[in-house]
Each structure stands twice: as C-alpha cells, then as structure tokens.
Specification:
The structure holds 2 protein chains of 2 kinds.
Chain A (H helix, E strand, L loop, with lengths): L4 E3 L2 E4 L5 E6 L6 E8 L3 E9 L2 E5 L6 E5 L5 E5 L8 E8 L10 E2 L3 E5 L1
Parallel strand pairs in A: 2-11
Antiparallel strand pairs in A: 1-3, 3-8, 4-5, 4-9, 5-6, 7-8, 9-10, 9-11
Chain B lengths: L2 E5 L2 E5 L4 E8 L3 E9 L5 E6 L6 E3 L2 E6 L4 E6 L8 E9 L5 E3 L3 E6 L1
Parallel strand pairs in B: 2-11
Antiparallel strand pairs in B: 1-3, 3-8, 4-5, 4-9, 6-7, 7-8, 9-10, 9-11
Amino acid sequence: KAGVTQTPRYLIKTRGQQVTLSCSPISGHRSVSWYQQTPGQGLQFLFEYFSETQRNKGNFPGRFSGRQFSNSRSEMNVSTLELGDSALYLCASSPTGQKVPGELFFGEGSRLTVL
Amino acid sequence: EDKVVQSPLSLVVHEGDTVTLNCSYEVTNFRSLLWYKQEKKAPTFLFMLTSSGIEKKSGRLSSILDKKELFSILNITATQTGDSAVYLCAGSHITGNQFYFGTGTSLTVIP
C-alpha cells in the first residue's frame, strides 16, 4: 500500500511569491491534515480536511489556505510568502471516521525555503 | 490554550540503558494521545493511547496514559543506537484530527 506522497519535496521561493503544495493520502483515507514544522516551534497544525470539507483550522493567517478534492488529494497554498514561512510542511492522512480516533500517517514533507 | 509539553528536551544515554520520556498535556475535550519517532524524515507512528492506565507495548517500547494527571510516558528499555531520534507526543480534541504536538525529546544513544 503506497504511503502519503507529497510534492514537491524541495522548493525555493522569494518573498512575496506564492506556493502550492500537493498531498496524496493513503488509499482509503479521507482525512488529510497539514502541519508546519520549524526548529523553534515544532509541529504546528494548519488545517484538516475530511470529505472535501475543512473540519479544523489552526492559528495561521489567511495567507495559508487549503482544499481537498473528491479523490481525497489535498493542496495547500501560501500566498505573499514571508521569510518566516520557511519550514517543512508535512501532510498526514488518517483512516479516522467522524468519531473514531485515528493515527496520523505522515508524508516525507515539502521543504520550503523563502529567500 | 491547548498545549503539550515534553521533557527532557534532550538526553544522551549509552546502549543498554533504559529511558523514560515524559509528556504532559492540556487539551480541551481530550480524546487521544499519540507518540511518534522522527529521524531525519517523516514522523513514524508508535502508539495511540485513549484509555488511562492501560500500557501499550511494542518490543522494547512501552507507553501509558494517565488522564487524571494529564500525562503520558514512553519507556524504551535496552536502548540501541537505532533508537536515536526525536520522540514527539501529540494530544487531540474529541472532534476531528487536530493534534497539538510537543516540541519533542531528542534522544541520542551512544555505542
């Protein structure tokens, strides 16, 4: 069974640009979450999608957005990039249903560097 | 404010030692606590704990949750160099999959 796939793995952008990251979850998983990982802050929750609906959202500015498609693939977009957006962006899928807890399965991440 | 705090931040042990990693949490409407191991790549799942007092084991690793005192521990016995990694714990709400992660404990096992 294929794992969580994230693309691109590495990218370099300049301040003010925007970026789109993609995530394909494990087959059958309907929940997709996004996390930002930085050395100082650790993993911070961005948002979670379940069946194409945003179910939870973390405390990030509106420049961070996401969506989920009918095949459960998800994208996140960051507009007007700032230096502080440099981080590893991790996507995680989960087999959880609406009320059953489920572990997160992480992809390898997309490492974004903003110059 | 929901938060998860791990201790110690880092530790260095010799092969064969036993280590205990701590995780305390303050999560509103808490549902589950997860432990992950992260080497230089994606975090890999270790345990999910939802009930207090029930120990989960996997080989040399074990973990337990105390929902009254709001903490969990991860024990690793007979440590090996391959156990060197950052260990993360995360707590979740009762709804959805929003997890609050601690900043991790960096474990280094010396041969």
